[in-house]
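Two entries, shown back to back:
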Amino acid sequence: MMMYTILTCTIMGLWVLIGLYFGYMTIRDDIRNEMERRAKRKKEKLSQTPLSRKNN
């Protein structure tokens, strides 16, 4: 009976760690995509001429 408890706890622990890892990776990827999107938008804004900026 003790062996099943240890095995179950080990499997549950691994499951939780894998879930946390994938959650962290997803959040990290979202943050990176958002930073790239903001940098691209800022670069596009800076590359516009003053006249086109006035029209927007």
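entry 2 starts here
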Amino acid sequence: MSFNFRSVNIKAFLGVEGVSPFENTRAIKVGGYLSYAVFLALLIVVVQLVLDYSDTIQDGFWVSVLVWLVFTTELVINLWLVDNRKRYLKHNWLNVLIIIIVFPWFSYGSEWAAILRGLRLLLFLRVVLDVFGDVVNLLKQNSFGLVLAGAFFFIILAGAIFSVIEGVDFTDGVWYALVTITTVGYGDVVPLTGEGRLFGGALIIIGVALFSLVMANISAFLIGSEQKEREKDILNHVKKMQDHLDVQAELNEKRLAEILSEMSSKVDDLEKRMQAFHAERFDSSLGLLDKKVRMEKEEILQKMRQENEAVLSELRRTTLKKEDNKKT
């Protein structure tokens, strides 16, 4: 099983992570602003320590109180805003420890007080680790680390060659190569021989190219960082839009479900009404049909009565004729 060093959260391990990138947007934004306040407080700590050691300041109690309040305010506000308070305390254990130890109203004695106040500088690890990450990214970009290593060895080699040509100390030769390649040119070490001046001219030309290469890498890194920030902002905006669209789609689905349910209930009601209507029409049709049958039946019976009466009348006439014939 291999150990992936990149997977280790160094800032969390050292207890100076600040607000985790997995927290909510508001906590991350406010935590970033508070980090600037902490950085300014750390600069005040540096000034205070320098003045303490130089005996320029006699009583820095209220400065310590101000710095402590900044640290404590950051801790309290971040704890209030973050979602996972347990993780925040776990990943910022050094912050909590320093706030407790350097409590201004604790009396440790003059020597211990200076040492404990100096512990606040450990919070510079947050800044150092961020800068270290940027430096690592810069060295990785376009093989910039190899360029710097090559420049370093070239300066050493050029210094050695210059010291041999001019007959000066090796350190003076390296110093001359450094100030020449960087195009600074202090003038405290100069070539006196023709070979040395020729070599110095070559160093100037190479220095311009090498210095331009270094600055180009740094500029590309800065531009790339700005571009990454813009891309990050765009991605965040796209994510917000996607979240908004997802919420809107969910609302539309709910509304569609409500509309379909309402339409279904209306269709069911309409079907019931149609069934009732058809049943009523059917009953009405049956009534009309029955009435028609009765009327036809009465008509038939009436015709039969009339025919029977006609037949009876005819029989009576026939009978009367027969009786008349017999009498005669």
